[in-house]
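Dear Dr. H.,

I hope your travels went smoothly. While you were away I took the liberty of generating a structure for the chain from your last submission, since the lab meeting agenda had it listed for discussion. I wanted you to have the full record in hand beforehand rather than looking at slides cold. The sequence, exactly as received, is reproduced here:
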Amino acid sequence: MDPSAIAKRYLKTDFMVDLAATLPLPQIVIWFIINPAMKIPTAAHTNHTLSLIVLVQYVPRFFVIFPLHRRIIKTSGSIAKTAWAGAAYNLLLYILASHIFGASWYVLSIQRQHQCWSLQCREEMNATHSPSCNPLFLDCNSMDKPERRSWLNVTKVLSSCDAQNDYYFQFGIFSDAFTNEVASSNFIEKYFYCLWWGLRNLSSYGQNLVTSTFSGEILFSMLICIAGLVLFSHLIGNMQNYLQSTTARLEEWRVKRRDTEEWMRHRQLPPELQERVRRFVQYKWLATRGVDEESILRALPLDLRRQIQRHLCLALVRRVPFFAQMDQQLLDAICERLVSSLNTKDTYIIREGDPVNEMLFIIRGQLESSTTDGGRLGFFNSITLRAGDFCGEELLTWALMPTSNLNHPLSTRTVKSLTEVEAFALRAEDLKFVSSQFKRLHSKKLQHAFRYYSHQWRTWGACFLQVAWRRYMKRKKEMELARQEGLYDAHVLDQELNYRDGSGADYQNSGADNLSGENAHNAQHFGATVLASKFAANTRRGIQHKSDTTSLQMPKLFKPEEPDFSSDTEDS
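The corresponding predicted structure, in token form, is as follows:
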């Protein structure tokens, strides 16, 4: 755009009007017209120029105010940023109009009074008494003249122009200026009374005005009536629009709440369920004030929407330890797809075994995350999630799979809100898109960080250590039992050998003929005895081992699914 062309166009069109509206024309009129006129013998010139003050002051300003008002509304859509400022602006315009009509009424009242004096003076000039009325006597400069003093003692001009007695002259709507001593009061009282007169008659459309037959007075009253009707309607309409803009969302929320109440009564929901619905509607209103954030963001350009999401979500996302390991570009991609999520107290966000549709990053509030490891008897693990924690990590493992199917993973935990919770949610489709577009999400560094902060992996690790410890203790007991059984078998064998040695001495004394046959038979009997004792010990140990295994046997703990690292890139 060419600044010189704009300046030339402005000088040719609006410059003169703006200059006339800016210059102190009322002061110029007073100093250069009224003051010199006071020295002229003809007082009528002075009184007629008083009526020009209002026109000279406000006519050029009207040519500036109304076009400027239309331009502002056409450009920005409203004249003020807030509703109360817009209502105050329209009220000031209405008060300005009241000030104009009040000032005009006072000037016309003075003119009407002077007109009455002039008429009575002309009638008195034709009278026979002396001294007769002279128009110069109506001028303030002739107050010290002896002729005027003599005239005041015999004249009836002043008494005939009394506003309380309209026998000779009817003042009509201008009588209040003299009956209430407005003309003789000080400036402050005079100004506020005239302002009140204009405001009262504009608001009542001139219904309180009692006019005379003077045509100028009737036209002025008609102007007040029409202007009051137009301005008051304009004021009420604009103020209603501005004030309704502040309560429109509140009224919309009240209507929606009433519809919800009627629907719950129609469906005969239980009282506790109705109370939960009311609490959610109330909490959503307090958190959002009826503003649909998603629709506002969707209407903005991509770059602006990305910057807003970064401002709103980046600091909160960085509080999640897993996301703190990511670079700026990856965080921007995640922040761009986060949506707000609100949950009231005692709300089950997800149950164990249900498909996981979104990851939740907590901003405020507390959640209880518990698991029974697929319904295993006697197993229960529970933790409390606070601001900075997240849940639904099964979805991240599913998204990192290169060959993941359309079925969402099943939740391994039950998540329930302990208080009112405000969070950001990352939907499954958005997470899958981010993981497919940004290969850095597949890095082993992020994988290890995810395992470290994942409550599912922590639970699996704790269970694995518990099972390993129990197996270790079981093996230790078995080894101790085996050692004790080995000592017992050695003791029995020693007793058998000692007994055999004593029997051999007796048999040796009885004779040497049967020695070889008896030794062979006893050796076979001893071997069978040892084998039988070992078989009994093994059988007894097997029964005990079976009973111990039955009592300590635990179902197999499945390790959480791991992503395929075949497409991993180097750690960033």
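Two observations you may find useful: The radius of gyration is 52 Å. Residues 238 and 467 are 75 Å apart (CA to CA).

With kind regards,
E. W.
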